[in-house]
Amino acid sequence: MGDFDITALILTEHDAFRRAFTEIEAITDPAELGPRWRELADQLEVHAAGEETIFYPELLQDVDDSEGETAHAVKDHNEIRETTSAVDEHEVGTDAWWEAFRTCREATVEHLGEEENDVLPPFAEQVGADKRDELGMRWLQFHEEHEDARGLSGETVDPQEYVEEHS
What is the reported pTM? Predict the structure, then answer.
């Protein structure tokens, strides 16, 4: 994989998300917990929106029979968005906040594993290295343009409409 291979960039972020969830679990000071959670929540939205803007449209075009996996991924992104919003409804550090946080973590980690096992391998096999690098450059630009989730709505996306629009 090249330095800009979108699959490698996505995997790197997946690892960072897992570490961030673990690090947040260890924080006891609400003054530190709130900002660290906001940073992770924003990163999750940038990641999901980036996949929906750059990665999944290409998957639909270049990987056979990817409609089901794409719809499922968009549904998962919606669940992550909803669980992220649920965390924000509670006072930072309360039992209710931690419960919502753990629900978000569970939804996120499950989704990451599904992508890593079911989506990224066929993409890497069926899409050439040059195309993956070009997509990776677009991925990095998207992240730069939307740092801290700037300009992203965080709204859910209808999975079936998404697949129909991008197929």
Answer: 0.95
pLDDT of 1 > 70? The answer is no
Long-range contacts of 10-15 (CB under 8 A, 24+ apart): 10/47, 10/51, 10/55, 10/115, 10/120, 10/139, 11/116, 11/120, 13/43, 13/47, 14/112, 14/115, 14/116
Contact 81, 156 (CB under 8 A): yes
pLDDT tens digits along 48-80 = 999 999 999 999 999 999 999 999 999 999 999
Are the C-beta atoms of 13 and 108 separated by less than 8 Å?
A: no
Per-domain boundaries in the chain: 6-166
